Amino acid sequence: MITSTTHGERLEISIEGPLTHRNIDDLPDEILVAVKANPAQGLTLNLAGVTDIDSSGLGALIKIWKSCKALGLETQLTNPRPTVATALRMARVTTLIHVLENGNV
After folding, report:
1. What is the dihedral of CA 69, 71, 74, 79, to 10 degrees?
2. 58 located within any domain
3. Could you report the per-residue pLDDT of 27-64, keeping only the tens digit for each?
4. Burial letters for 53-75: b for 16+ Cβ neighbours within 10 Å, e otherwise?
5. 90 lies in a domain?
6. Domain count, the chain
7. Closest CA to 59 of 83, 24, 26, 89
8. Is residue 105 part of a domain?
9. How many CB atoms lie within 10 A of CB 13?
10. CATH number of domain containing 32
11. Comparing C-alpha atoms, which of 63, 62, 54 is closest to residue 83?
């Protein structure tokens, strides 16, 4: 469900599949393990492969953001599909986490 790479001083984690109550349980912990194992200065979550998101998925993204913020890391989301981007805006997640849609602010 996740793969990670390092780009300069940023850790990029790509997420695949739906982020819904059915499959979200371990995602925040898996991402935090990857963050703590990497000396990066920031985290980018690539959402290009996320096919669906519900309130549990949105909550997981906020949990990841809060955990990274406590570690002093800046978090951003990139490449959400249109339906995911709409959900992020409607839930006002974009007021907390910077979102780059298709490489654009």
Report:
1. -90
2. yes
3. 999 999 999 998 889 999 999 999 999 999 999 999 99
4. beeebbbbbebbbebbeeeebeb
5. yes
6. 1
7. 24
8. no
9. 20
10. 3.30.750.24
11. 54
